[in-house]
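Long-time lurker. I teach an intro course on protein structure, and each term I like to show students one example going from raw sequence to a predicted 3D structure in token notation. This year I'd like something fresh instead of my usual example. Would anyone be willing to generate the tokens for the chain below so I can use it in lecture? Attribution to the forum is fine with me.
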Amino acid sequence: MSRLIKSSLVLSLFVFLSSSAIAQMISPPNWSIQLSQKDIKVGDEVKLVFKAQIPIDWYIYSNDFDPDLGPMLTELQLEDKKSTGFTLVGKLKAINPKKKFDETWEGDVTYFEGSGSFEQTIKITSENINIEGFLSYQMCTDVTGQCVPFEEDFTIKATATVTKNPASVVDSEVISSADAEEIANEDSVDQVEETPNTEEVATHEQKRTYIDLEGDSDKEGLIGFMILAFLAGLAALLTPCVFPMIPMTVTFFTGRSKTRAAGIRNAFIYGFSIIAIYTIAGTAVAAIQGPEFANWLSTHWVPNVFFFLVFIFFAFAFLGMFELTLPNSFVNKMDEKADKGGMTGIFFMAFTLVLVSFSCTGPIVGSILISSAGGALVKPILGMFAFSLAFAIPFALFAVFPHWLNSLPKSGGWLNSVKVVLGFLELALAFKFLSVADQVYHWGLLDRDIYIAIWVVIFTLLGFYLLGKIRTKHDSPMETIGVPRLMLAISTFVFVVYLIPGLLGAPLKALSGYLPPMATHDFNIMVNRNPAMSEANQLDEIPKYADLLHFPPGFQGYFDYDQALAAAKKAGKPLFIDFTGHGCVNCREMEARVWTDPQVMQRLNEDFVLVALYIDERFELPESEWFVSEYDGKEKKTIGKQNADFQITKFNNNAQPYYVILDHNEELLVKPKGYDSNIVGFVNFLDAAKEEFGRR
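-- Reply from a regular --
Happy to contribute to a lecture. Here you go:
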């Protein structure tokens, strides 16, 4: 359940913010590029240091993972004809990047959040040093689902000495490409300054800023984050680790207050203690350990195996193997402290609640910390406050009104049935934690089909239990079942029926975030079963670059704008442009979740001519096809750079995925669309474009 809540939080946040980020230019990180030392001598080995200040909620990929995995690695490229006075020693090195297992790419990736640093060692070979080149990289965000490729041009001029005379040593300077020619005529450089860059509009004389999504999106995003954290706190109350604590709370507070006012005061102290413990603990983790700890908590085998074992432990307890009770000595000590003054006992009762419930709330708390990772401190504080507030309110109310417990159904066979059902659910959810560790460390224990088979068995047994066909040792004999229990049994068997095709390779899109990747599925008979997926649509001519680029299964189109526009005119259809990239995670998400929907697939294949313009494809075109950009004045030599320049200059946007639909006069039919997993919205987007095309 905690993982479900986590994914719901992230997905909801995507939907909440994505619409505000569609039609804006995204500014690059703020780079500082300089040599590691000022006193340079011929023969020295020095470091060329690249430091980036990355916008909040964004990250850039590093360069020390498998280049064939998918994301665009950070690379250093030098202008060989212009760079003199040094030789490279080794390769560009990332300094302490973070590492995680990415389920979309099905492999380990490294990345930087908040700030990042790279170093390239060089050996000085002559007095006059000139270093010109650029750093290419990809910046992405999980908030709006965007990925943007960038290049950071730089020129460094410095003078090295051949003697030990410090008077001849000159500082190095980082300058922009626009100023390189002017500075080349100077004899020395006196200070290090940051490389200027472009931002929202096409000009070369702007300072760098970070774009705020529609002005107040950070504020709105924070409010939305708190609301979702509050809902997560309410959901945590329904977990089997928390719900049994309610009677204990009532028992603890019943008869302990001599007056009504004292009872209300104690209840508020109890609720405030819960909030304080969660908020302080979560904030301390975020401030001291930072996002590294949150990532460790999410991906490392130690916490995941620990949570797996804890869930198994609670599952066995709820299924009746043993009883969960607090040690009498511990309860007696709390009673003694409460009798002496009450404050310490109330705090310890709140601490006990937090501790006992951690096996269920821990993953939810971890997901909040992960969602707020990136160096920010206010966000985790407010997130933990909202979560603990929702968590504390019911316990405080039961402390104020302990007689409310009398309105609940009396203990009996129904209560044991609830415990057993929760036990089955805990048992099923436990394997998600083990699956995470299995994927990250490649143990091969829980392939996708094995995982689905385990769930099929568990939920089938749960269905039979709800029908009374299976009984545990604490269950009472049951001759009839009520309608609610029957409805729950039907829902369980419906879920099992939904799971079964997954054993044969069905994608099970509703569970795609919780199941192991399809690549781990050993027995898949669904491949090529869908004609739309196995038979390519016939095109009038072979697409250019078809040997390099591809569409998702079931789709055919072009990879060159001019060729696609000519085909659209010939076919009498609108042109659907997909600005995408090899390393665009959310492009793959859209293709897997939205494009494969039958309504979307039919419309894309029948009503439009498709062109996929990859913005990170590095295939270098013939020199006759190179051009100088009107946007930044740089020469565009590759397919990706030309496509990216086209997206920027034509549509004032540089993020992917980005979907544009044009008529034959290259005019917009509808407002372009970015990442949006709402299938109905995407269908309406396509229908509106087709309808507008028919009117022109």
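Some talking points for your students: The longest helix spans residues 260-299. Residues 622 and 637 are 8 Å apart (CA to CA).
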